């Protein structure tokens, strides 16, 4: 994990004179913009004025038009944008590099909030604020990569199963049922126990192995619905081959539910990563993960609540942001809910 | 550009005695949980270039299934074709490999559907969908294909075609959508066009416009047109000959004029008498009694006998053959003479 260490010197205990109000601003960044922007939205009801634009309305442009006017979507987007910046450039938020062992001074263990340590310090005397910021990357990487892998694998297999039906479908569907029978946390524990190390990729693998059947089912159902539509028969009658029918006529008409579920699941994957890291089989020390931080802080919770509460708060906020985004995307893509 | 269809099939012209399209003793069955459904039982008809054949019959009579068998778009299984031939310029389509059939579909035989809204892909613009025909089969560039799409939309008389080429199907009215569907189907100048109830979902004035458009396009290109419908009024003006189907069989086969004047099968007669007429205003409208047969449990003998006013004892036991009334007419009724006589007076 050395690749994620930012360049530049670390500043152990040299931030004593940081202005007190800066702390408020920095902490407030993630949640402040959506709260301020909400009242500015004209109305939450998506009433569409007629002739509102000259561009024709496809499902996607319609959904995008709808999304841009949803406070829920805007709030979630701003939150996620901040989280993404935090994951890619954590140096922007803190000058302390928590991966540098010199930043942890055991003598400073379990300090309260101070100008030097905005979120206090943990059992090892490390800065909780810096660790919380740096924890965003692993959460987001696990969430996004698991989502992409499950959407691709589950989506592709679902497309094949729904389109081919018959023996292919039976084989794939029965296989997914085996995966559905595995209790998720137990299954992930077993898979992760096979690895000596724990990092984002092992966690991603464990989650993806258990989660792809869900995407598979949704895709398969959507494909079967689309396959029996008249336009698929019309396309065949006008000479489209099976590949063209599959990717040009069926896929674009069945991808929407997969996108919705993928967005909603992204938050769940982040939560699952934290749970597995908390249990000690996910991301392991010295790597940083919110779940791991919560696990390390829980024994001394009554003496020092900061090392537990701040990563837990960030975790909840991140999961909430992605679930809110998923909700907004679902509302925009499902015409029945309009 | 690839065009293997021309390698497989005889070129245009030089028909000899072979009609453009000949369906010969076609049988189609569906394997269902309830048993074997015999949807088509020995249907035969022929089509010449420039000719319009109307296939008439109520829902479940097998007229659409026959058309889908010609196109090769039946889902097999559950469908299967135990017997029969579909010859296109002398080549049996049922024996062709799938990729050769894909080449024929759209290029040489095309089809339009009843509900044009659901037959158009909702996520692509109409221009993209019409242009797809040229991109896939003719290897045209996106730009040329779009130009062709506008030309075709003009040809099927969609107003302001150039402005509407980027619109989506749901932005068009029912009649306009059917025109787009027609534009797609005639894009590659097919020799046979099958129209499966093209006007059923439209209101009466639009129906007439669509029929007129189809007839005009047919005159321009001399294609053979198979018009599947349950509406006798729609076909009277445009069809050359009519095949009436009942329970998966052709019960009467005749030039359009003959069948309207002197139907030779009790079912055709019943259909004609059920058309509302101004001169019979105030009287009760005739209806054929009973219901179409359950294809899982077909009546013995003539399938129409439970509903037939001309029924005799042998109708219950003997399946009537397709009797030849004249060189161009057939009727599958033991008592076709009586039926003909009954309409003479």
From TrEMBL, chain A:
<feature type="transmembrane region" description="Helical">
    <location>
        <begin position="308"/>
        <end position="329"/>
    </location>
</feature>
<dbReference type="Pfam" id="PF00528">
    <property type="entry name" value="BPD_transp_1"/>
</dbReference>
<dbReference type="GO" id="GO:0005886">
    <property type="term" value="C:plasma membrane"/>
</dbReference>
<keyword id="KW-0472">Membrane</keyword>
<keyword id="KW-1003">Cell membrane</keyword>
<dbReference type="GO" id="GO:0055085">
    <property type="term" value="P:transmembrane transport"/>
</dbReference>
<feature type="transmembrane region" description="Helical">
    <location>
        <begin position="175"/>
        <end position="195"/>
    </location>
</feature>
<feature type="transmembrane region" description="Helical">
    <location>
        <begin position="254"/>
        <end position="283"/>
    </location>
</feature>
<dbReference type="InterPro" id="IPR025966">
    <property type="entry name" value="OppC_N"/>
</dbReference>
<dbReference type="InterPro" id="IPR035906">
    <property type="entry name" value="MetI-like_sf"/>
</dbReference>
<keyword id="KW-0812">Transmembrane</keyword>
<protein>
    <submittedName>
        <fullName>Oligopeptide transport system permease protein</fullName>
    </submittedName>
</protein>
<keyword id="KW-0813">Transport</keyword>
<keyword id="KW-1133">Transmembrane helix</keyword>
<feature type="domain" description="ABC transmembrane type-1">
    <location>
        <begin position="136"/>
        <end position="326"/>
    </location>
</feature>
<feature type="transmembrane region" description="Helical">
    <location>
        <begin position="201"/>
        <end position="219"/>
    </location>
</feature>
<dbReference type="Pfam" id="PF12911">
    <property type="entry name" value="OppC_N"/>
</dbReference>
<dbReference type="InterPro" id="IPR050366">
    <property type="entry name" value="BP-dependent_transpt_permease"/>
</dbReference>
<comment type="similarity">
    <text>Belongs to the binding-protein-dependent transport system permease family.</text>
</comment>
<feature type="region of interest" description="Disordered">
    <location>
        <begin position="1"/>
        <end position="56"/>
    </location>
</feature>
<dbReference type="InterPro" id="IPR000515">
    <property type="entry name" value="MetI-like"/>
</dbReference>
<feature type="transmembrane region" description="Helical">
    <location>
        <begin position="140"/>
        <end position="163"/>
    </location>
</feature>
From TrEMBL, chain B:
<keyword id="KW-0472">Membrane</keyword>
<dbReference type="GO" id="GO:0015833">
    <property type="term" value="P:peptide transport"/>
</dbReference>
<dbReference type="InterPro" id="IPR003439">
    <property type="entry name" value="ABC_transporter-like_ATP-bd"/>
</dbReference>
<dbReference type="InterPro" id="IPR027417">
    <property type="entry name" value="P-loop_NTPase"/>
</dbReference>
<protein>
    <submittedName>
        <fullName>Oligopeptide/dipeptide ABC transporter ATP-binding protein</fullName>
    </submittedName>
</protein>
<keyword id="KW-1003">Cell membrane</keyword>
<dbReference type="Pfam" id="PF08352">
    <property type="entry name" value="oligo_HPY"/>
</dbReference>
<dbReference type="Pfam" id="PF00005">
    <property type="entry name" value="ABC_tran"/>
</dbReference>
<dbReference type="InterPro" id="IPR013563">
    <property type="entry name" value="Oligopep_ABC_C"/>
</dbReference>
<dbReference type="InterPro" id="IPR003593">
    <property type="entry name" value="AAA+_ATPase"/>
</dbReference>
<keyword id="KW-0067">ATP-binding</keyword>
<dbReference type="GO" id="GO:0005524">
    <property type="term" value="F:ATP binding"/>
</dbReference>
<keyword id="KW-0813">Transport</keyword>
<comment type="similarity">
    <text>Belongs to the ABC transporter superfamily.</text>
</comment>
<dbReference type="GO" id="GO:0005886">
    <property type="term" value="C:plasma membrane"/>
</dbReference>
<feature type="domain" description="ABC transporter">
    <location>
        <begin position="21"/>
        <end position="272"/>
    </location>
</feature>
<dbReference type="InterPro" id="IPR017871">
    <property type="entry name" value="ABC_transporter-like_CS"/>
</dbReference>
<dbReference type="GO" id="GO:0016887">
    <property type="term" value="F:ATP hydrolysis activity"/>
</dbReference>
<dbReference type="InterPro" id="IPR050388">
    <property type="entry name" value="ABC_Ni/Peptide_Import"/>
</dbReference>
<keyword id="KW-0547">Nucleotide-binding</keyword>
């Amino acid at each position: 994990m050395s690749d994620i260490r930012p360049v530049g010197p670390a500043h152990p205990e040299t931030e004593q004179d940081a202005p007190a109000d800066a702390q408020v601003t920095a902490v407030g960044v993630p949640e402040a913009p959506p709260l301020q922007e909400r009242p500015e939205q004209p109305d939450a009801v998506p009433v569409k004025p007629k002739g509102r634009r000259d561009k024709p309305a496809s499902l996607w442009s319609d959904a995008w038009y709808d999304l841009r006017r949803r406070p829920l979507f805007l709030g979630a987007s701003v939150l996620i944008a901040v989280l993404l910046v935090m994951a890619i450039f954590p140096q922007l938020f803190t000058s302390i590099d928590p991966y540098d062992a010199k930043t942890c001074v055991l003598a400073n263990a379990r300090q309260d909030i101070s100008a030097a340590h905005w979120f206090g310090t943990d059992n090892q005397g490390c800065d909780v604020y810096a660790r919380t910021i740096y924890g965003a990357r692993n959460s987001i990487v696990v969430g996004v990569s698991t989502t992409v892998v499950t959407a691709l694998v589950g989506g592709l297999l679902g497309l094949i199963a729904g389109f081919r039906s018959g023996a292919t479908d039976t084989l794939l569907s029965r296989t997914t049922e085996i995966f559905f029978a595995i209790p998720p946390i137990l299954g992930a524990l077993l898979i992760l126990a096979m690895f000596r190390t724990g990092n984002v990729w092992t966690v991603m693998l464990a989650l993806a192995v258990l989660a792809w059947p869900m995407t598979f089912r949704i895709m398969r159902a959507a494909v079967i619905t689309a396959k029996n539509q008249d336009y698929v028969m019309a396309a065949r009658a006008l000479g489209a081959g099976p590949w063209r029918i599959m990717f040009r006529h069926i896929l674009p008409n069945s991808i929407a539910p997969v996108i919705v579920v993928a967005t909603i699941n992204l938050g769940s994957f982040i939560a699952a990563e934290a749970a597995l890291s908390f249990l000690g089989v996910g991301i392991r020390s010295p790597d940083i993960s919110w779940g791991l931080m919560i696990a390390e802080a829980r024994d001394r919770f009554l003496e020092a609540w900061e090392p537990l509460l701040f990563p837990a708060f960030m975790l909840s906020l991140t999961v909430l942001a992605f679930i809110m985004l998923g909700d907004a995307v679902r509302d925009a893509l499902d015409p029945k809910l309009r | 550009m690839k065009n293997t269809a021309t390698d497989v099939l005889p070129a245009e012209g030089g028909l000899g005695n072979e009609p453009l399209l000949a369906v010969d003793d076609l049988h189609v069955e569906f394997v269902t949980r309830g048993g074997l459904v015999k949807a088509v039982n020995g249907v035969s008809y022929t089509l010449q270039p420039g000719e319009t054949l109307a296939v008439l019959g109520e829902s479940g009579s097998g007229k659409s299934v026959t058309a889908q068998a010609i196109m090769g778009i039946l889902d097999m299984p559950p469908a299967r074709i135990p017997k029969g031939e579909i010859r296109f310029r002398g080549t049996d389509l049922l024996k062709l490999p799938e990729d050769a059939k894909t080449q024929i579909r759209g290029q040489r035989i095309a089809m339009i559907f009843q509900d044009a809204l659901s037959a158009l892909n909702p996520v692509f613009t109409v221009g993209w969908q019409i242009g797809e025909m040229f991109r896939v089969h003719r290897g045209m560039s996106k730009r040329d294909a779009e130009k062709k799409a506008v030309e075709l939309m003009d040809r099927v008389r969609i107003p302001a075609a150039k402005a509407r080429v980027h619109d989506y199907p749901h932005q068009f009215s029912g009649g306009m959508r059917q025109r787009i569907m027609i534009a797609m189907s005639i894009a590659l100048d097919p020799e046979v066009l099958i129209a499966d109830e093209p006007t059923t979902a439209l209101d009466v004035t639009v129906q007439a416009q669509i029929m007129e458009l189809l007839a005009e396009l047919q005159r321009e290109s001399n294609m053979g047109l198979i018009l599947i419908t349950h509406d006798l009024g729609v076909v009277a003006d445009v069809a050359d000959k009519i095949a009436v189907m009942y329970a998966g069989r052709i019960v009467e086969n005749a030039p359009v004029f003959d069948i309207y004047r002197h139907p030779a099968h009790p079912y055709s007669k019943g259909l004609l008498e059920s058309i509302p007429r101004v001169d019979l205003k105030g009287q009760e409208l005739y209806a054929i009694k009973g219901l179409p047969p359950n294809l899982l449990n077909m009546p013995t003998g003539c399938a129409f006998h439970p509903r037939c006013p001309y029924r005799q004892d042998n109708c219950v036991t003997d399946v009537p053959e397709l009797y030849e009334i004249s060189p161009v007419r057939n009727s599958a009724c033991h008592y076709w003479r009586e039926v003909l006589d009954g309409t003479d007076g």
